[in-house]
Design brief:
The chain has about 290 residues and is an alpha/beta fold. The protein has helices at about 10-20, 45-55, 70-75, 75-95, 130-145, 165-170, 190-200, 220-230, 260-265, 270-285, and strands at about 1-5, 25-30, 35-40, 60, 100-105, 145-150, 155, 175-180, 185, 190, 205-210, 215-220, 235-240.
């Protein structure tokens, strides 16, 4: 299968390429260098030309503007990249009968349900990032029946600057730590998500999926577990509410995702505690 990956220079896109290249022909596109093709997904004609040249069997679309606070400061740009850019690819793949997978987010939900969200709960985003991702979901689902919508949450990856790396760096520097207690979701290791996506696209079972490491946790407990595992058990972590952590975007409060659809076809991810230990071991050795 010939696989075209957008955002191929990003953490998830690059990991998808690494995991798929032994079984498929993989081509990567991004606005950054170091990939097979340069592509700005907001340029419809550029998308059209690339699909005509590559003629992929499937398009995987993790490319996105994932700076949640940046999206809050510039919601029009967020909508253009995450929404309209996805709509461009959705229309083009639909016209050619090409399956497309879109990586979305737990932030399409408002966090008020009081239980983990299942795949067919109604999205109701409460911030600009979530709205832009919801736009992308709807754009794809409405025009291309051969679609996968994959929601995930709280991704942590190697070679990135994510929550865990920020916490551990602060602890190593002896800086005071303050972490939110009432924001809850599923921490998800990018390597595990990529493996799950690789399995999913071989099923040809189109639809919406929640692919997250099993188990929900608060930001505070996630940080505390990571610190304990990484040798910073003595580092104190102050508990605060999300309203005390001033930022441009206020995330939804309680958005664990339940993997119902994926589990029904054998696509599951290990518990987040196991994935975090594996991540920390790889970081330490590498």
């Amino acid at each position: 299968m010939k696989v075209l990956i957008t955002g191929a220079a990003g953490n998830l896109g690059a990991e998808l390429g690494r995991q798929l290249e032994s079984r498929h022909t993989v081509l990567g596109a991004d606005i950054l260098d170091g990939v097979d093709y340069r592509l700005d997904v907001t340029d419809f004609e550029a998308c059209r030309r690339l699909l005509a040249e590559v003629a992929p069997d499937i398009v995987l679309h993790p490319a996105a503007w994932t700076d949640v606070d940046g999206c809050a400061r510039d919601p029009a740009r967020a909508l253009l990249i995450n929404g309209v850019g996805t709509a461009h690819l959705a229309a083009l793949t639909a016209g050619q009968g090409i399956p497309m997978l879109y990586v979305s987010s737990n932030e399409v939900f408002d966090g008020r349900l009081g239980r983990p969200y299942v795949e067919f709960d109604r999205p109701n985003p409460v911030n600009a990032y979530g709205y832009s991702k919801c736009y992308g979901e709807r754009a794809l689902a409405q025009v291309n029946p051969k679609h996968y919508i994959v929601r995930s949450s709280w991704l942590f990856a190697h070679d990135g600057r994510n929550f865990i790396q920020a916490i551990l760096s602060a602890a190593a520097a002896g800086k005071p730590l303050r972490v939110v207690t009432n924001e809850v979701a599923n921490p998800t290791y990018t390597n595990d998500l990529a493996a799950a996506i690789a399995s999913l696209i071989e099923t040809e079972r189109f639809g919406s999926y929640h692919l997250v490491n099993e188990g929900a946790v608060s930001r505070w407990h996630f940080a505390r577990f990571a610190l304990d595992c990484a040798g910073f058990a003595e580092a104190p972590v102050a508990r605060i509410s999300r309203h005390e952590w001033q930022r441009p975007s206020l995330p939804p409060e309680y958005t664990p995702l339940a993997n119902i659809a994926g589990a029904s076809i054998g696509v599951v991810l290990r518990p987040w505690q196991e994935s975090l230990r594996a991540f920390l071991e790889a970081e330490a050795s590498g």
